[in-house]
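Support reply, case 0932

Customer input (verbatim):
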Amino acid sequence: SKYFSRAYGNYLSSLNAQNALDFIAAADYAIESLKEDSSNIFLLKHSFKMLLYSGQFEKAAEISSKLEFFNENNEFLNLWPAIIFELKQNDFSTANELVEGLNLEEYEQFFSLILKSWHFAILGQKAKSISLIEKLKNNINNYENISFVQIEIQKLYILYYFEKYDELEILINQILRENANLQPKYIVSIAQILFHTGRKNIAIEVLRKFLPENYSFDLTILYIKENNIISPKHALSIALEDTSSIIAKKRGWLRAFPILRMSSYLYEFNINSKLLIISILQSMERYEEALTVLNGIDDYSFYFPLILVEKSYLYEDLGKNDEVVDILVELKSNPNYKKLAMLKLSNFYIRNQLYSEALSICDKLLLDENQDSEVFYYRALALVNMKRWDIAIESLDILIEKIPNNPTVMNFVGYTYVDQNIKLQKGLSLIKKAIELDPNNGFFIDSLGWAYYRMGEY
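Our regenerated output:
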């Protein structure tokens, strides 16, 4: 303390927490540093950034008002919290004013035009609202990372807001025709709109065709029955989530993290944003923090069983294997997800070297003729690791037949053939094919070296 002030000490502690990716602690220390030196622009900027990353947008908005005096380049970043705060209060007019006259990057232009479009929609000016969406769509070639569907989905929400059902039907058909792999959040929105515009059977058909297995069909139907409104805040939350993906493509998910936090803050029922936040926290090894976010989501939303599976992964990361088994056993008790739970449980046993338990589950799963190809992979892995060569080799032959063009499977089967000094030419051929598909994979190249060694081609 003789040489350093408390402000500097707290700043150093904040940096240390930031380096550990503990943004909540980093923000707390940063705020403490400001108490000692509240007008220090350097500390203000650091505190603002840490508050953004920790999701404390109201405090960040307070600091951004001070930073405006030092904002020579009209940086949009400093105004994000203020804009989101105004939207949270349903003040779309003020939020729109804050965007005016700023130097905007690509992702900021996307969100600012969507925001302006909703501003005019709320004022009842449909033509102006739609014209801004069309402007963004017509100029899409000027943007590197913005997709048509991100724009069209907002147009869909606005048409629904104005109850323009004929135009809606045309746009929905266009979106479904042109996008083979729509994200589930868009599928649910489309089904919701169809359901509440008198096209219930079509809505159900869309869900049956496009909704992934790890989303509950029955709970999705229940959700769309009970929710007939897509509010402007809901739509803008999805626009923010899409904005985060635009940033992520260019700068990585860590840079997109604060925008995802804003998406979740603006509309707390945007579960997709929360799941992406959890995924990023998990990649940062912030497992307890990720679990806290996940525990805030209702297990039995239409994202069930995805949420239970994510919980099992987090408990495994935390070394709480008993909880992992409990969750997957709970999921298994639901007849609709019994196969999924058993598959995840066998994978868990494989990762934890409990090969006998994994094999037992795989053998039960194979009693069902319509089985996922992963079962054959886990079964072969279990048999090879148990050195059950009497049936392991046969399981490898079946595996390569069931999953013929997967480089990981090719390498595993090829390496095992070679390692056991059987089917050497076939093993070498499989390894070479794996390398053709993934030429920079060190594991595959290592297998190739081992194959040549086994064959005496030193």
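We compared this against your earlier run and they match. Two observations from our side: The CA atoms of residues 67 and 78 lie 7 Å apart. The chain has a mean pLDDT of 90. Please reopen the case if you see a mismatch on your end.
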